[in-house]
Design a protein that fits this description.
Elements (H helix, E strand, L loop, with lengths): L18 H35 L3 H29 L1 H21 L3 H29 L2 H31 L5 H4 L1 H11 L9 H4 L5 H22 L4 H24 L13 H30 L5 H7 L1 H21 L2 H17 L9 H29 L6 H27 L9 H29 L4 H9 L26
């Protein structure tokens, strides 16, 4: 892995046990924790946001999707930027950008301003999400890198577990604005810690051009499809739905052509020549669409239909994150012994059962007997398939492209959630301010639960058909490596992996 002048790479990197090593880890955990915290609390705040800002459901959809749109479109580009201009510098830019956009979110006086600020926040997230892992991978000595990545992932998991509880407390206490404003002091702490972090870059990557047209076309495709789906569930005219749909699909077609011809594509299409890689990403789309859909609807159902406050709604889903934190490593070990096929079939089916149990989450439901069993079963299912899914993605490509393949898979998960948030209310007939009506919300939630369970089941079928026993075990034996981000409790996407010699792209 290359490095720029003045870095510590020539000397072998930083020792994890050293004072500087602890500063590097603190910096990376705080930076990734900012983005992770934001991803876990905004859904809980949606009913409060809608009431305070007088926002329709379509506006609330955009509060979620404006962030996801820019994050998804720029995630691969953000990782590449760190390789070129320096990972430390990129992280600093991302932290400052994310904090400034978070402050704008916290100060927003109307839904339109909040949506615009969320889009800006997603740009910062695209720098933070791959940047924090790349910094860990590039800063430590080779012998310490595996333990450092594991520590980063585990501590990030703790931040993810605290997120729903902290977010609910902030929403009910100081107010929803503080779920964004809290990022400002966190960013200040990162900027203090980053002074102790060595700079590193990939000199070979620095000579390669950015795929700016690809990133722009990807953003136009996602924006067009999102506008069409959200507009169709609102009060948009036929032209207001068809025009963005046509423009978005056209941008998607041109994106494929550009990526096929450009010299250094953001998304090398030859990766999809691997049937296993393609199948794994289809599974990812199904799994994370199901996760994104049910976790978009459940906090609203709990608050609108069951009368929970934000703290109760946030805490209600905490078992999902805790189970993933505790069990993901064991699930990864199980997949290495048995192969990924069994957990990739069983995990989604267990998760589907958990979602179907949420049909009991209706007026009069009790947390212990109705809500808790559903979220526990869902969490168990997710814990089973997250690590094996990552192993399958890495097994489908050469080791030198593992970081890029992981980035593509992570982006696919975020795109799936963006599209399901845009399309699910349309599919279940929820629009306008109906999310505030307990009867309308309850009926739509039941339909959404059935649809999300079907997506989980579809992923299980794809795993049974396309994932062959022993494939990942043979790959790891040949390459002498295994996934390093084994402790994962981020529910919004699979863990990023450092990858091969060049590290995270």
């Amino acid at each position: 892995m290359g490095s720029g002048p003045g870095t510590e790479q020539a000397g072998g990197g930083v020792a994890l046990a050293s004072a500087r090593g602890r500063w590097v880890l603190l910096c990376a955990v705080l930076a990734s924790g900012m983005a992770l915290l934001d991803g876990t609390v905004v859904n809980v705040a949606l009913p409060t946001l809608g009431k305070d800002l007088g926002a329709s459901l379509s506006a609330l959809q955009w509060v979620v999707n404006a962030y996801m749109l820019t994050l998804s479109a720029l995630l691969l580009l953000g990782g590449a930027l760190g390789d070129r201009i320096g990972r430390r510098r990129t992280l600093v830019i991302g932290v400052v950008w994310f904090a400034a956009a978070s402050a704008l979110c916290g100060l927003a006086q109307d839904a339109g301003t909040l949506i615009a600020a969320r889009a800006l926040q997603g740009v910062g997230g695209a720098l933070l999400t791959p940047g924090s892992l790349a910094l860990v991978r590039a800063s430590y000595r080779p012998d310490d890198q595996g333990r450092a990545v594991g520590a980063w992932s585990g501590l990030g998991g703790v931040a993810g577990a605290v997120g729903p509880f902290l977010g609910g407390w902030l929403i009910d206490g100081p107010g929803w604005r503080w779920i964004f404003l809290i990022n400002v002091p966190l960013a200040a702490l990162v900027l203090v810690a980053v002074r102790h972090v060595p700079e590193s870059r990939d000199e070979a990557a620095a000579r390669q051009p950015f795929d700016v047209p690809g990133a722009c076309l990807a953003a136009l495709f996602l924006a067009g499809v999102s506008f069409a789906l959200i507009g169709a569930s609102g009060d948009a005219s036929a032209a207001g739905v068809l025009l963005p749909a046509v423009l978005g699909l056209a941008a998607g077609a041109v994106f494929v052509l550009v990526e096929h011809r450009v010299r250094n594509p953001m998304l090398p299409l030859e990766l999809f020549r691997s049937r296993l890689f393609s199948a794994a990403n289809v599974m990812t789309l199904c799994l994370y669409a199901a996760i994104g859909g049910i976790l978009f609807m459940l906090p609203v159902q709990l608050q609108t239909t069951l009368g929970y406050d934000a703290l109760q709604a946030g805490t209600a889903t905490l078992p999902i994150t805790v189970l993933m934190l505790l069990l993901s490593a064991s699930a990864g070990d199980l997949a290495r012994r048995l192969g990924p096929r069994l957990p990739l079939v069983a995990g989604p089916l267990v998760a589907a059962a958990g979602v179907l149990l949420m049909l009991r989450v209706r007026p009069g439901a009790a947390y212990v007997t109705d809500v808790l069993p559903a979220v526990v079963v869902l969490g168990l299912g997710m814990s089973l398939f997250v690590a094996p899914l990552t192993a399958t993605v890495l097994a489908s490509v050469d080791a030198s492209r593992a970081g890029l393949a992981s980035g593509v898979n992570n982006t696919a998960a975020r795109i799936a959630q963006l599209l399901v948030v845009a399309g699910l209310p349309l599919a279940v007939g929820l629009s306008g301010t109906a999310y505030a009506d307990p009867d309308a919300m309850n009926a739509s939630f039941g339909e959404a639960a059935v649809g999300c369970a079907a997506l989980f089941a579809l992923a299980a079928v794809a795993a049974a058909v396309f994932v062959r026993p022993g494939r990942t075990a043979a790959w790891h034996e040949a390459q002498g490596s295994e996934p390093q981000c084994r402790t994962c409790c981020g529910v919004e996407a699979p863990p990023l992996e450092p990858g091969g010699e060049r590290g995270q792209r």
